[in-house]
Amino acid sequence: MRIHRDGLGTIAGIWLVCLGIMFLISWLVKPIWIVVPICVILTFLMCFILYFFRVPVRRGNIDSPKAVTSVADGEVVIIEKVFEEEYLKKECIQISVYMNFFNMHVNFWPVTGTCTYYKYHPGKYFLAFMPKASELNEHTSIAMKTEDGQEIFFKQIAGTFARRIVCKAKEGVSGERGRQCGLIKFGSRIDLFVPLDADIKVEVGDDVVACLSVLAELK
Length: 219
Prior knowledge:
Elements: E1 2-3, H1 8-28, H2 32-52, E2 54-55, E3 67-69, E4 74-84, E5 90-99, E6 106-108, E7 113-121, H3 133-136, E8 139-146, E9 151-158, E10 165-167, E11 174-175, E12 180-184, E13 188-194, E14 199-200, E15 207-208, E16 214-217
Antiparallel strand pairs: 1-2, 3-16, 4-5, 4-15, 5-13, 6-12, 7-8, 7-11, 8-9, 9-13, 10-12, 14-16
Helix pairs in contact: 1-2
């Protein structure tokens, strides 16, 4: 397991703050029963931030070229028919996966194909599981065209505590299902849009794993 390089700056900042506080507390505060609990809490925070930016080794064993795998670890919170008006401009099935603090936050391409659209949208930081977060929060929009010409569309949506989205997508760039495509720092959400005739493989409330969980099967 590795640490994502885009999280190194955040890790260094938090570690410096925690170590500084621990030094000051140890120097200025004499009662050991005050110093020890504070140092334990700060040490836990330092360990957690390393765990948060982990990049596990994922080897997907899904053979079907029609499979659309999860972009992120998390819980399926929305499955509904919607009109996607930014790029596809047609009715689709939206599948949304919410990532909490304890989920791995690295994102992976859901299909193999070529990026046909990319756009970054600055915005607000509502709770990521709220419906309005999809449009009002900071997010990126990415469209991918598969080898047989089908397009899927997904958004990386920042949450209340997220302040940076990392995305490797650019128009014309090729992506391979199961390879890294980005990172969202802290609580966040992925909205995935697939064609109406896609065979949906998950239900609301299901826990999914990036690269390994199939969300839908394209026709």
